[in-house]
């Protein structure tokens, strides 16, 4: 049998039918769908038909919502199967998507409807997409808007603060008002005794002249008692005034120096402790208040509790005898109010304490109050994310990690404190006091603009 090229060419020749081009029936390839199984198009996370299949750089394919849930829960940019890190942002495999939709249309439509009805999955997909958008956005545009504005303000204030602190540190202005809280009472001059009496309040004005006429110095001041103050020449006949002066005398006798009367004096007398309390109350208020209860009950905790949760008798008490009431044991109503605020709104306690000092620290108290409000918002956002993502079971582990972090940082601060230069301590203190609100404003703006992208 001879080979006829023309006959073979006819086999490959197109067949023209009614103006259209078609392949000969003998050469048409028939789809073999009977050999295709669902397992070949299944996701290795949910083991179901792929929906919006996403291919990673390692070659593995997953449903896009499965990959989004994995990214949100693990905080890792790696394949759930082989653990190889992916590069860039994973995209949907269009060819594979079209194939699965054609072969398993009913299953894909059913699964898509289930995904759209699940708010948790929809939120994860949105967060995953926003994350990809932020990666693809040019860096020049990422810093525009509110974040750029607050970053610029923060930078400018930082430069001004550094210049001011350098000036004060070099000129010694920070130490010129620290005499009474560091100088022993026995060495006080009559002028310093009058300054101490004046710092007690305006109610002491009628009693300053006898102290000046008698030329009372520190040694004589330590010898005074309630009987001497009642008699001539002092003649403090008001019982509340007399008890207040006696109480302050007992304090300076016990301490040997003047007790701090405001924030700056407390910072000078307790430099390390003030730094610890400032950062502790900002990052971990509950643990810090618990520390004050266990180790600084009468000196700090009781005045703090009475200021934040005062009784009606305390509110109506004259200013000169407030100190006497702050040393009394709180009532059960005060304890109940304090424990509720301690558990639910710890930053409100700090704001109420600062509000009581508005007359002494006008702008500083307002900075602290604003910062407490911002920190309350951030804590509320964190609690909301924890509840909506159904990760309450991880709360004990997070609490333990937080406790370990606070303890380790406190221990490191206690070890390194003697070696930290004073200027650095001043910078850290004023940074946490005045600049933290600006940073927290930026964080709150980010939370409110994109709350779903802040994965825990």
TrEMBL record:
It is a multi-pass membrane protein. InterPro entries: SAM (IPR001660), SAM/pointed_sf (IPR013761), Znf_RING (IPR001841), Znf_RING/FYVE/PHD (IPR013083), Znf_RING_CS (IPR017907). Residues 43-83 form the RING-type domain. SMART domains: RING, SAM. Residues 188-255 form the SAM domain. One of its GO terms (cellular component) is nucleus. One of its GO terms (biological process) is apoptotic process. Its main location: endoplasmic reticulum. It comes from the Eukaryota. The chain crosses the membrane at residues 147-170, 367-386, 406-433. The keyword Transmembrane helix applies. It is found in: Endoplasmic reticulum membrane. The keyword Metal-binding applies. CDD domains: RING-HC_BAR. It catalyses: S-ubiquitinyl-[E2 ubiquitin-conjugating enzyme]-L-cysteine + [acceptor protein]-L-lysine = [E2 ubiquitin-conjugating enzyme]-L-cysteine + N(6)-ubiquitinyl-[acceptor protein]-L-lysine. One of its GO terms (molecular function) is zinc ion binding. Its EC number is 2.3.2.27. Keywords: Apoptosis, Endoplasmic reticulum, Glycoprotein, Membrane, Metal-binding, Transferase, Transmembrane, Transmembrane helix, Ubl conjugation, Zinc, Zinc-finger. Membrane-bound E3 ubiquitin ligase that plays a role in several processes including apoptosis regulation or reticulum endoplasmic stress. Has anti-apoptotic activity, both for apoptosis triggered via death-receptors and via mitochondrial factors. Contributes to the dynamic control of IRE1/ERN1 signaling during ER stress by inducing BAX inhibitor 1/TMBIM6 proteasomal degradation. Promotes the activation of TGF-beta signaling by mediating the 'Lys-63'-linked ubiquitination of TGFBR1 which is critical to activate the pathway. Interacts with CASP8, BCL2 and BCL2L1 through SAM domain and also with HIP1, IFT57, ESRRBL1 and BCAP31. Interacts with NGFR; this interaction inhibits NF-kappa-B and JNK-related signaling pathways. This is Bifunctional apoptosis regulator.
